[in-house]
Each structure stands twice: as C-alpha cells, then as structure tokens.
Amino acid sequence: MSNNLLSGGLTNGWMYWKALVIIRLGDNNLSGTIPPSISFLANLKILHLNNNNLFGEIPLSLKYCQNLQIFDVGGNKFSGSIPKWIGHNAKILQFRSNQISGNIPPEICQSESLIILDLAYNKISGIIPSCLHNMTAMRQASSSNVVTTFCGKIFCSNSIYGDNVMLHIKGLELIYEENVKFTRAIDLSNNDMSGIIPQEVFSLSELHSLNLSHNQFEGSVSKEIGKLNQLESLDLANNKFSGEIPRSLAQLSFLGTLNLSFNNFSRMIPLGTQLQGFDELSYIGNPELCGAPLPKNCSDKKDVKPIEENDTDQEDEFLASFYIASGVGFFVAFWGVCIAIFCISSFRNSYFRFLFSIRDKLYVMVALTMNRFG
Predict the structure, then answer these.
(1) Are residue 39 and residue 184 in the same domain, yes or no?
(2) pTM of the predicted model, to two decimals?
(3) Of 72, 211, 230, 285, which sits 20 to 30 A from 184 (CA to CA)?
(4) How many structural domains are present in the chain?
C-alpha cells in the first residue's frame, strides 16, 4: 500500500493478522505513533513506514518481532533514542531524516547480518562504537546466503524478496532491488557525532559506502583506510579531520566518489591517478592542502614521489625492524661485556690491562705534545 495518499493513524488491530510477513506503507500521509499491537506479528520480516508523518518513540514492543530483517522508518518525525532491541536477524536499518538523539548503542553491533545502517540527518551524538567490527556481514564477501529469501516461495520470487529499498549512496537516491544483497553501506552523516574514526571500522573490508560528513569528527585518518579495498564512495566532508591524506587512499581502485572538503587536511595530496582523477571540489576548504587537482602548488613537491602499492607499509616495517634490531644488539653487547667482566677473572684482568695500556699511551702522547710546544 505504498505510494498512495493514505492519511490518518495506523490501526491498533494488528493482532488479527499474525500471519503478516511484509508491510509496506511507505510514501503516504500517515500520522500518529506506531501502535503496540504490531508486536503480535511474530512472523514479520519487512516493515516499511518511511516517508510519512509518524512521530513519537520507536516502541519497545517491536522487540517481539524477532524475525524483522528490513526496518525502514526514514523520513518521519520519530524522536527518542536508537532502540537497543535490534535483533540479530536485522539486515537493513534505516532511521534517516528523523529527530532521533542520543548515542549509537553498542547493542547494534550484535546485528551480525547487518549490511545497511542509515542513521543520517538526525540528532545523534557521541562516538562511533568500536564494536562495529562485530558486524561480520560487512567483513565477509557477499554470497547467496548472506541475504536469504525473506519471505519464501509462497509470497515472493525465489530471487530475493521482490522488495525495493531506497539508498542514499554516491550523493544520489538509488533504488536497489535484488542487488541490495551485494551492498554494504554505513551512513552517519548530518548528525552531531564527534571523536575519531576507530580502527575497527577499517576492518569492514566489504564496505562499499562510508558517509561521515557534516559531523564533528577529528584527528587524522589512519592509513588503515587502505584496507577498505571494496570502497566505492567515501564522504568525510565538513568535519575537523587534520593531518595528511593517507597515501593508502590512492590504492582504492574502486573508489568512484570522494569528498574530503572543508576539513583541516594539510600538505600535498598523494600522487596517483586515483586521487588526481577527482576534481578540486573533493578537496576545497582545506587551507593547508596543496597539489593537483587543487590550483595551489606545494613547496616541497620535489620530496614527494608517486604512490606505489605497499611502499609506505614496507618503509614503516623496515624502520621498525631496524630500530628493534639496533636496540636488541646494543642490549646484548652491553650486558655481554658486563657479565664477562664481573664473572670471568681472566677476561677482567685482560680488560683492565687494556685500559691501563691506553691510559699510559695517552699520557705519553700528551707529555710529548706539551714538550714540543713548550
């Protein structure tokens, strides 16, 4: 019943339709709150209430819909916090464009099957939970059983579930059907979040789209971002990120959309066809940033070489190995000499005779020098 002109509130008679598996009421003029009787729908797997005028908090009673896999309430006026009852079966969660506040609860990381998390355009604060790496579906390659048939052969086709999902990726509104099972996306844009990007985010190796724009994130972007080798869209605009743009970003061969504008990035944009392929709009608003495609030239351009795969990692590994080996060598040599002096009498005698002979030679040399100039 989506895309109609339905108005009024949702009925509270859902207990009479316990066999319902799919509810699509999106893009209407519905108002009011979600009635508690919807919790009787134990078989419910898909719930679309997006783009209406619904308000109030998302009811706790929905936790009894433990088979819920697609939950889309975007484009409403819901308030309160993100529910902590989200089940392990959740695959697509869309709370976009509401008035939801508070932090992202760590319980959301228990949704191991989650492939789409859209919390954009709310009032969410706090940091990105470091437990996001528990979302194993975003770390594993797509397969036919990652997103299974939601409703079975009786209700829909055997391909996936015959459902349309609207996603905001690459700055566009795109409708995904069967191909949604191959998509991995996190959108936290236009909130009031802060802190740094936790290292655990960079373990989501199957992530295709990451949007953290229009928040208060800060700190540098780790070179570990190069591990997101499936990334197609990255938007970090309008934050407080600083430091250099990591060279590993140039290794993301699938990256088709990039926005790093209006931050505090500095120094030269790493060389490589990947990053120079974007126009200057991807980098504007960073006063200390220079190099192509920006018109500002870098004074230390001669010190920068084109990016080669794994060169930064190899250099860091070599330096780390060199420092460790030097420290171990000095430690072993120093204590080896000390132990020999204190424990071996013959070595100790020889060592001190050697020192005395050097002393005598120095004394003679100094005396001869003084007599020569005297």
Answers:
(1) yes
(2) 0.76
(3) 285
(4) 2
Q: Is the four-CA dihedral 121, 124, 125, 128 of positive or negative sign?
A: negative
Within 146-211, where are the H helices?
152-155
Point out the domain boundary residue: 184, 219, 254. Answer: 219
The count of other CB atoms within 10 Å of the CB of residue 79 is 15
Position 366, amino acid: V
Per-residue pLDDT band for 350 (boundaries 50, 70, 90) equals low
**Residue range 109-163, pLDDT digits in tens:** 888 899 999 999 999 999 999 998 888 899 876 554 444 444 443 344 333 345 6
C-alpha distances out from residue 317 to 224, 237, 371, Å: 14, 31, 56
Each residue's pLDDT tens digit, 263-287: 999 999 998 778 988 999 999 999 9
CA neighbor of 233 nearest in space, from 185, 265, 271, 287: 185
For residues 291 and 257, the answer to whether their CB atoms sit within 8 Å is no
Distance between first and last Cα of the chain: 113
* CATH number of the domain that residue 96 is part of: 3.80.10.10
The answer to whether residues 182 and 142 touch, using CB atoms and an 8 Å cutoff, is: yes
Q: Are residue 98 and residue 208 in the same domain, yes or no?
A: yes
Asked if 209 and 320 sit in the same domain, the reply is: no
Interior angle at CA 233, CA 254 and CA 70, nearest 5: 115
Count the neighbouring beta carbons within 10 Å of the beta carbon of residue 134: 18
The last residue of a domain, from among 168, 187, 219: 219
Residues 4, 235: Cα–Cα separation, whole Å: 34
75 part of a folded domain: yes
Which residues neighbour 44 within 8 Å (Cβ) at sequence distance 6 or greater?
Answer: 20, 21, 22, 23, 38, 65, 67, 68
Query: Does residue 289 belong to any structural domain of this protein?
Result: no
What confidence score (pLDDT) does residue 302 get?
Answer: 45
* Same structural domain, 212 and 324: no
Contacts 24+ apart (CB under 8 A), 28-31: 28/1, 28/2, 28/3, 28/4, 28/52, 29/5, 29/53, 30/6, 30/54, 31/7, 31/55
Same domain, 214 and 321: no
Residue-range definition of the domain harbouring residue 176: 7-219
Q: Are residues 66 and 208 in the same domain?
A: yes
Q: Is residue 158 part of a domain?
A: yes
